[in-house]
Amino acid sequence: MKPDLKAFGSMKGAQHCERFMAGPVHYEVYIRKTAPAAWSLQVATEDRARAIQTAEEFLADNRAAAVRVTKETLDPDTMHFNSVTVLTRGAPEVKRPRVMADEDAPPRCGSPQDLYAPTSRELVGRVLEEWLSRQGVTAFELLHRPDLAEKLEASGVELQHAIQKVAVPESQISGQPVHDLVRHYQKLAERTIERLLLAGRREQFPDLENHSLADLAHRLAGQPERAFIMGGVVSRALTGVRGGRARLDRLMDMADRAPMDGPPHAMVLVALEQVMCEMFAARSNLADVLGPALDQGASLAAVVRMVAPREVAALIAQDARLALHVPVVEGPAARLGERVAAGQFPLLSAALARMVVRELMSPRRLRPNDAAGEIDILRTLAMTLTATAGRLLTLEEVQTAFNERSKALVTADFVAAYVKSCTTVLCEAEALTRLCENVTGMANKRASARWLSACVGSLRFETEMRTASDQTPAQKLGVLAALSRAVRGCGLTDRDEAEIVTLIGAVGGTVEAEARITTLLARSPAPLPQKLAVLLRMASGDTAPAGPAADRAKAEAIRLFRAPGNRAALAATPEKLAPLKGLMKAAGLAA
């Protein structure tokens, strides 16, 4: 009898479907060679034990920073694999922000008008920085001068590179194709250049040599493109003027010729302010305006004086020594300072103040060859910037900047340069005390205190104070007392202050014990009130540091006071006892 092939085929198909319904299963082994690396597939097998063993071997042999084993089961309905993690070991995965591609999102700049926004001009200035520097102009002038736009278009390569610098990062953020963004910005550049060339052909930007700036401002008031036209007028007036000082002088001339008040006045000053903000962003222009002879610290002080002349003048009136560290602002910079003092150009003032803060937070030295002078100029900047807090900067911004700058003052390199000129260890201790006083931030205070503690606690410091022949023991105690008082005025933590004062006091105790100052003073034939006055000044920390020397002086003063004969002698001369009462109070003795 022949076999039923049809039935046999049906049976075989049913068995296959049953196996398929259960779902084929396999295991995959993934590794990450480093913690931030992406997962990569290494092995795929149907044997679970082999997959786990392979993953363990990758980890044990240091061929991977992390391993993962997943179980993959095929879903017969959707024909997709369902993944379940079986094993994960090793370094944790670094979470990265996910870039969401949005094909429908428009580019950041869609029309020529968008390029004139402050953020867009800043971007134009960055991507065309070298070209603008060679031309001696700003991004604002490029967007308002037809001749510059035509020159940039003719360069070809410069414009193409600038477009790529904009398109590539935007593509990475938005997920849009780079080529689409490049084509978009090429068309945008062409439209912007064409707009400028058309404005030039129509002579929309009058020449100030033949026109009055005030009249132009009054005629433009109310027109829809008044800002664009006024920007072109101001930019045209700067044509051929190179150098920060000459350009600022020309801008101040235009400010003098602007309308006195109202919207026309604001129209002119806004255009001037935008040019100055971009012009002062370049260090070369700032050095040209303030003077190339100034170092970085003096330049920053001059900028603060320029944008806050009233505050700096008030500080100098209180402390004339401040004028030694704040350069005098002359020429066009002084003209700008007068207008800032009158309340004009607030955006420029704030931008320059924040530029000073950024420079303070940078690693660049204020005075590279003068560590002591750097502390002087830093103290000056702290006083002047704090005086402007609330108008140009917040107090938090000022404090943050000086905390960051103080980190550079407590490094080993700076401290070594700072004390390099000291010829004695006492000079080093006094210099480090000044360093402790001028740094800000608790962490920086602690770091500076460690330097000072190491200095006054060293054997060299004690030996020098004991053996120095240029001072008497009493003079040495007075120097140590002054050093101890200076430490108390540094604003250190209680623990650091107590530690340093104790170390200084111990050295003072050694000096006093070897010289036997207290004993010899008590036995001297000097009048009793005089001896008590000297001892009480030592006990109060005036002529001796707190510690063993002061304690011995206090004990000797108490002994003299309690002596019956001395008590009676003092009671008989109350006019001699009266001056001692203040010293007794300072020394912690009852009057």
List the helices and strands and how they pair.
Blueprint: H1 5-22, E1 25-32, E2 40-45, H2 48-60, E3 66-75, E4 80-90, H3 118-127, H4 129-135, H5 139-142, H6 146-155, H7 157-174, H8 178-201, H9 213-220, H10 226-237, H11 244-256, H12 262-280, H13 283-290, H14 296-307, H15 309-318, H16 332-341, H17 346-361, H18 371-388, H19 395-409, H20 412-418, H21 425-438, H22 442-456, H23 459-467, H24 473-488, H25 494-515, H26 517-523, H27 528-539, H28 548-562, H29 564-572, H30 574-586
Antiparallel strand pairs: 1-2, 1-3, 3-4
Our measurement of the CA-to-CA distance between the termini, rounded to an integer number of angstroms, reads 137 Å
Structural class, from helix and strand content?
A: mainly alpha
Mean of residue pLDDT?
85
Gross morphology is: flat
Question: Could you characterize the architecture of this molecule?
Answer:
With 591 residues, this protein is mostly helical. It is built from 30 helices and 4 strands. The protein has a 4-stranded antiparallel beta sheet with strand order 2-1-3-4, with helices on one face. It starts with a helix and ends in a 5-residue tail after the last helix. Mean pLDDT is 85; it is low at 1-23 and 97-103.
